Amino acid sequence: MNVTTNAHINSPTKIIWRQVWGLAALLAAITFSWIAYGFYQPKILARIGFVDLALWLGIFQGLLGAIVEPVVGWFSDRVLRRFGSRLPLIVVGVTLAGLIFVIVSWLVETQLSEGMRWIVPVLMTVWVIAMIIFRGPAIALLQGFAPTNQLPKANAVLALVLAITSATSPILGLLLKQIGASMTFILGAIALLMGSVLLWSSSPRHLVTATSPEVSTPKAITKSVVMYALPFVVGLGSGLEINLLLHVLPHSLFQAIGNLSVEYVQSGILLVAGLSTLPLRSLFRRQKVIWGMGLGLAAIASCLTLILLSQNGIYLIAIGAIASVALGLVLTNTIPLALSMVDPSQAGFGTGLYFGGSGMATALFAGLVVTQGEILPLYGAMLSIFALVISVLCLNNTKSQNGVAIL
User: Fold this and answer.
1) Which domains, and CATH codes, for the chain?
2) From CA 124, how far away is CA 104, in angstroms rounded?
3) 3-state helix/strand/coil string of the chain
4) pTM value?
5) pLDDT tens digits for the chain (407 residues)?
6) Of 330, 335, 342, nearest to 398 (Cα)?
7) Contacts for 247 with CB less than 8 Å, ≥ 6 apart
């Protein structure tokens, strides 16, 4: 007989909104940090002579995330069983990411020698790993902040905050350009510190009890590799569709209307998606997250295909509105779906697998953009249909494997 140690999460009887908003504050800080990083990374690398590396480093870091996300998620589950909390990993990740931000803010004001300039891309890669260390475990905390059946409702708040923060990217870009790289990275470090403090002050620690030994059945131990691959592939498919939507539609609108900036169209899509999570959050409880995710992905793929029918500006705006609501539907069900595809004791691993697949999608998409330039609507439609097919196959497999536990 095998014996393992598990941490038991006290499932709340209602959504604990203080903890949810504390987590949302940390995720907003994470999003701001990614915006700051994405804005200055290519500029800094180009300045020190790494023009080509600036194009490919993002792809490498996306592939790195595809590996590191599941590993960190698995390790966070081990930390939870050992210490009764995921906070140690979160503290380590926030501290490391903030420290690297401060170091980079000093380096950008320094004249680096030929032999020392490599330290900058190395630090940038380590920063990405540091962000991964605490992002996945932090998201997994949502499992203890809401009853299982109300996870989509709680997650809608996270989706709203993330979408609105991401939508401010063009405006933030103008601000970051004015204050300079050094001050931007210092602000990033401060944002991460404030976000982690707000999460800590919401006192999520009481949600987890002490660990206790528990007999594990062979079913809980032996799980096929295919089942663990499902959340990764769904993350890959949904991540690819989202990237295609935020690329193909804005470029099509820019060509049709002319005076609509691609960046501001992307912001509009994210803003509408974030706001749509509010009415959508009550429509999908935990039992319907698979159906909700499938519907959202099917709607996005359909919209990307319908772009081929006409390049009329008003028509494309209407398609964009529908696609934005579909994106809100996907965002509302993302985390509950990732948590439902694994055992509750593997919440960190489940979210890690899902976002690892999403990172892989981002890397593949970035590779296509670097090698092909702008992705044409026809190719976007074909790729979105491919992403939808692999996602739906995995979602159907999840339904058949889990039965009434999810449906």
Assistant:
1) 11-207 (1.20.1250.20), 217-405 (1.20.1250.20)
2) 8
3) CCEEEECCECCCCCCCHHHHHHHHHHHHHHHHHHHHHHHHHHHHHHHCCCHHHHHHHHHHHHHHHHHHHHHHHHHHHHHHHHHCCCHHHHHHHHHHHHHHHHHHHHHCCCCCCCCCCCHHHHHHHHHHHHHHHHHHHHHHHHHHCCCHHHHHHHHHHHHHHHHHHHHCHHHHHHHHHHHHHHHHHHHHHHHHHHHHHHHHHCCHHHHECCCEEEECCHHHHCCCHHHHHHHHHHHHHHHHHHHHHHHHHHHHHHHHHCCCCHHHHHHHHHHHHHHHHHHHCCCCCHHHHHHHHHHHHHHHHHHHHHHHHCCCHHHHHHHHHHHHHHHHHHHHHHHHHHHHCCCHHHHHHHHHHHHHHHHHHHHHHHHHHHHHCCCCHHHHHHHHHHHHHHHHHHHHHHHHHHHHHCC
4) 0.84
5) 333 334 444 566 788 888 889 889 989 999 898 888 888 888 888 877 777 777 777 788 788 888 888 998 888 888 888 877 787 788 888 888 888 888 888 887 777 777 777 888 888 888 888 888 888 888 888 888 888 778 888 888 888 998 999 888 888 888 888 888 888 888 888 988 888 888 887 754 444 433 333 333 334 334 566 677 888 999 999 999 999 999 999 999 888 887 778 888 999 999 999 998 888 876 655 557 888 889 999 999 999 999 999 888 899 999 999 999 999 999 988 888 888 888 878 888 888 999 999 989 988 998 888 888 788 999 999 999 999 999 999 888 876 555 433 33
6) 342
7) 365, 369, 374, 375, 380
Structure tokens at 62: 């996306």
The amino acid occupying position 355 is: F
Tokens in use for 272? 């509408």
